[in-house]
Amino acid sequence: MSRSKAPAGRLRVVLALGTAETLIWASTYYLPAILAVPMARDLGVPNAWLFGAVTAALLVMGAAGPLIGREIDRRGGRIVLAWGNVVVAGGLILLAVSQGMVSLAAAWLVLGVGMAMSLYDAAFAALAGIYGRAARGPITGITLFGGFASTIGWPISAAVEAAYGWRSVCVLWAVVNLTICLPLNMLLPKPQAGAAAAAQASTATEDVSTDRHTRRAIWLLALMFSVAWFVGGAMATHLPRLLQEMGATTTAAIAAGALIGPAQVAARLVEFGLFRNLHPLISGRIAVAMHPIGGLVLVLVGGPAAAAFAVLHGAGNGLLTIVRGTLPLALFGSTAYGLRQGLLGAPARLTQATSPFLFGLVLDTSPMLAIALSSLLMLIALACLLMLRARGTSKAL
To answer: Which of 1, 97, 108, 216 is most buried, by CB atoms within 10 Å?
Structure first.
């Protein structure tokens, strides 16, 4: 009986959490791409100030990550994710009624807390608490849904903004968080109560802070994710311009950029199918190697290789999102998973937040230098993964 119920229960969790994650990403992280210009114009603030508020939200998200992760370790993800929807909705309402830079910044700071409570790191920790080491499949499943967040979110936001204005978009997404995402997150299984949960919480800090091999692995993973997220943030902001600087036409650069989303989803499908029995270290090494391979092709061929570069970068980025959740689980297990995810995510969010500005300075100097920088960073990420060993083995995979 239990065997027959397990797959259905897991499928229900993946469908519910995957749908919620898609809508939460659409209503937070992907919102500025559509609303930044009309929002700045209406409020009379420079675009740079608005994106500065978004950057502050990402920094708050990273800073709050360890605390949120520890709470998920202690209480389970069900309640934390649901409260995250409430905080996100509150931030969106504050955004909808903002009248200037101060209220705008306050709204984005609230959204930063809400994102820390409800986006992938929190969702991965919730799944690890439910399934333990068997969470790899569900983690991959919800990222398959999340890959369509911009595909779904951008057209909805753009259509509502064109018809009713950007404030209505914020109100709409606030309602979606409260009426769709929150009930879906409440479908997650309740956390374990009593001694087992208390024991996990009491050992979480010790497991993270006192084991020398664990600390070394965390440092390597933190560096790997930091440089990888820097490159990801830089490409999300500057990819069309970079491809044009390398010789692609405007049309070709935009078309190439449109391939990133499908490439991410395709790579996640490969992870779900062909790679599901491989150790996440192997998936991670393949993922971080794709960008420098694409960079080499772009340098050698120039503009005509724009699509190839975009596909390789997008596929690697899609795999890395899964590796972000599955590799710490495979190396350290599910105990203190949420806290570790928070610790790993804090520096990565910092580099991701600063990457558009810093990479833009390099791109202003030379597109070849920009490609060399991003490729070098991903090679550093590869070196970090090559230095890591699978748990329970004496030699690297």
So the answer is: 108
CB 338 within 8 A of CB 71: yes
Entry pTM: 0.81
CB atoms near residue 361 (< 10 Å): 9
Residue 196 falls inside a structural domain: no
Domain count within the chain: 2
308 and 170 in a common domain: no
Pair (187, 224) in one structural domain? no
Average pLDDT, the chain: 84
Residue 264 lies in a domain: yes
Cα 199 to Cα 99, 202, 206, 207, 391: the distances in Å are 48, 5, 11, 12, 22
Which two three-digit tokens encode residue 363?
Answer: 């791109």
Structure tokens at 133: 């080491």
- Last residue of one domain, picked from the residues 163, 191, 219: 191
As a whole number of angstroms, the distance between CA 367 and CA 362 comes to 8
| pLDDT tens digits along 283-341 | 899 999 999 999 999 999 988 999 999 999 989 988 888 888 888 888 887 778 888 88
Cα 247 from chain centroid? 30
Q: In terms of Cα–Cα distance, which of 83, 37, 140, 386 is closest to 396? A: 386
Contact 292, 375 (CB under 8 A): yes
pLDDT for 199: 40
CB atoms within 10 A of CB 254: 15
21 residue type, one letter: E
- Is residue 197 in some structural domain? no
Domain that holds residue 235: 209-387
For residues 197-232, b (16+ Cβ closer than 10 Å) or e, as one string? beebbeebeebbeeeeebeebbebbbbbbbbbbbbb
Using an 8 Å Cβ cutoff, are 83 and 115 in contact? no
Considering the domain architecture, whether residues 103 and 9 belong to the same structural domain is answered as yes
Where does the chain have alpha helices with state H?
A: 2-27, 32-43, 47-75, 77-96, 101-118, 120-131, 136-146, 149-164, 166-176, 182-185, 195-209, 212-245, 250-258, 260-273, 280-301, 306-332, 337-365, 367-387
